[in-house]
Write a structure and sequence with these properties.
- It is a single chain.
- With 321 residues, the protein is of the alpha+beta class.
- The chain is built from seven helices and eleven strands.
- The chain is globular.
- Strands 1, 2, 3, 4, 5, 6, 7, 8, 9, 10 and 11 form an eleven-stranded mixed sheet that branches.
Length: 321
């Protein structure tokens, strides 16, 4: 019985390697449980081989040192993007003139101080209420108002009379926040977003302590086209100009493939090279549906841009922001 196995000599048993014939297809197995089990083993083997190949490549690069060839840039939908003719050049005089005369110019010229009213759709439920309260701790100088049957057309003149610079309306469907309307006052524009992946503070793992009242820094990533520039300026105008760095809080609007991901973090410098970050929440994702000139007007409003899926989404590599 000495078959030369490692187990016979008291050593640990050799790990069993799964060898599938070259023409093997998991789908040929008739038994559902067996098929599922074999598929998992096959996936595990694929992962091991991929990891081994990665380690081998890394060792080869380390051995070559400076002579190692440059790393290949992986192809992604993002870097294979179809060029958009409205992409903004930072030195474009026409863009500079537009920015100096658009509706956000008073904010960027420091003539106005942001004052935000956050409200909801009619008679909001608990989750939407909590989301609005947490959003008001992220945006300084914002006030939450619970709406009961009052039309937006009646709210807007009252906001302008009380010197509000922006109105944010959070809509809900089946008790879940699913839309956001951002209206810049007094002259617009108004952006309507679809909202998804909302996570409140208590649902975020390893979250930090409650945010402080310090004015956060604002990061706007990848808003490259003329439309994206307008949306980026709209988000920027919600926050006061001079962040209080002592609070170490950052609000990030990151645009990727026309989805705007919002995150709110606190950071700390552990050393010259290491930075620790904690997510404070809430987090959510926005997708622009329309941009309307002027303040909210559902009947007679003039739209600058509307997302039309069948006409616009002809290519997965075409983006608008």
């Amino acid at each position: 019985g000495g078959g030369g196995s490692a187990a016979g000599h008291g050593g640990p048993p050799a790990p069993e390697r799964v060898l599938f014939p070259p023409t093997f297809s998991v789908s040929e197995i008739k038994n559902k449980q067996r098929r599922h089990f074999m598929f998992l083993r096959w996936k595990q083997q694929q992962r091991k081989e991929k990891l081994a190949a990665k380690k081998k490549r890394r060792k080869e690069r380390e051995a070559l040192g400076d002579k190692a060839p440059p790393k290949a840039i992986p192809k992604t939908i993002e870097n294979q993007r179809i060029y958009d003719e409205t992409t903004v050049d930072p030195n474009d005089e026409e863009v500079a003139f537009d920015e100096a005369t658009d509706e956000f110019a008073p904010y960027f010229n420091r003539q106005t101080v942001p004052k935000i009213l956050i409200t909801t759709s009619d008679r909001p439920r608990g989750r939407t209420v909590r989301f609005c309260e947490q959003l008001s701790t992220v945006i300084p100088n914002s006030h939450v108002y619970y709406r009961r049957g009052l039309a937006l057309k009646r709210i807007i003149p009252q906001c302008i009379a009380r010197d509000f610079t922006d109105l944010i309306v959070v809509n809900e469907d089946r008790k879940i926040p699913n839309g956001m309307l951002v209206c810049h006052l007094p002259d617009g524009p108004t952006a309507h977003f679809r909202m998804s992946s909302v996570r409140l503070r208590k649902e975020i793992k390893r979250k930090g302590k409650e945010p402080t009242e310090h004015i956060p820094e604002v990061i706007l990533n990848n808003f490259t086209t003329r439309l994206g520039h307008s949306i980026g300026r709209m988000f920027a105008s919600l926050f006061p100009h001079d962040p209080q760095f002592i609070g170490r809080q950052v609000a990030t609007f990151h645009n990727q493939r026309d989805y705007i991901f919002f995150r709110f973090h606190r950071y700390i410098f552990k050393s010259e090279k290491k930075v620790g970050i904690q997510e404070l929440g809430p987090r959510f994702t926005l997708k622009l549906r329309s941009l309307q000139k002027g303040t909210f007007d559902s009947k007679f409003g003039e739209y600058e841009w509307i997302h039309k899926r069948r006409e616009m989404d002809t290519s997965r590599r075409k983006f608008h922001l």
